[in-house]
Amino acid sequence: MKHPSGNTALDTVDGLVKLGLRDRWYALCRSDEVRRGALTRLERAGEELLLWRDAAGTVHVQEDRCPHRGARLSRGVHMGDRIACEYHGVQLDAEGVVVSVPGSPGCALEGKKRLRTFPAVEQADAIFAWFGDPEDGAPAPFVLPEGIGGEWESFLAYVEWDAPWVYSLDNLMDPMHGAFLHRKSHTMAGGKREAVFQIRDTDTGFVFEKIDQAGVNFDWSEWIDTAMQWVRLEIPYPATAGPGGPFRIVCTATPINETQHAAFFWRCRKVQGWERDAWRFLYKARLEARHWAVLEQDRVMEEAMPLNAWDRENLYQHDLALVRLRRLIRGEAQKQLAAREERAAAGRRVNA
Prior knowledge:
Naphthalene 1,2-dioxygenase Alpha Subunit, Chain A, domain 1; Cholesterol_7-desaturase; oxidoreductase; globular; Aromatic ring-hydroxylating dioxygenase subunit alpha; single chain; VanA_C_cat; iron-sulfur
């Protein structure tokens, strides 16, 4: 059974590993990238998307493909509560229903849902969409992990890197690289350069942590899968960096295609009242540039790695989390393709 996007890579296990599992929420972009009255085209998780806001400002995510002749809707016209294809004027609403065919009023297309539409939410300064398989299945609840919202204050850093998305997952689930690649950072200069790790299972994933050092450096990472894939970690902060205790980072990555990805880093601290104001000032005035410098080190390292880096690895104890995570993703990809084929077989039996 072929994927509805027409991208044949999504019909293989390797393709789902490289382009992202289905039945997951993915972060698409920063909220401010989708302006009112504009049509925004994005490629995410191997799919070509159109993002736009209706007259009330609500964001919508749809396939960037007119159901008439396949023209790019992102080259069309924003009409407030609907969009129009520039090629032949076909108009569609936020549910993907063809509401007007100006060139042939009353034709069979009118009134029919013909545009693939993705459930979307907008929270924490970002836009997220549900990539379902089957496409008309109900989305899982969207859940932000602890560290974003509530008592936590956060800033979102967004990047697009020329490297496979799994390289960022590996990087985030590898605490040991902090003591080497980031050893000159103001927060990761301390601690030992050797460590022993353990994996601790949780209800939503697992924690990979040093057993002989805590609260000194980048000492643990947590993989979270709640129908959206997150990584959470903490870096100790001195009092000179402001109130709020340890500096928490909540991250997610979204494939753009097989060789590029987008990554989202919420830098978080548990602060309220005057402490919130103090930390926000300190962050913008002193800390943000340092954090971008750390991300730049990661970018340079990931983009320089060959696309076949996994094929010639020699992993050791520090890499246990990478092995666990890769097996989880590949195993889920296999299950999703088997379920898709089972649905196709059931459909064939019904139609026989």
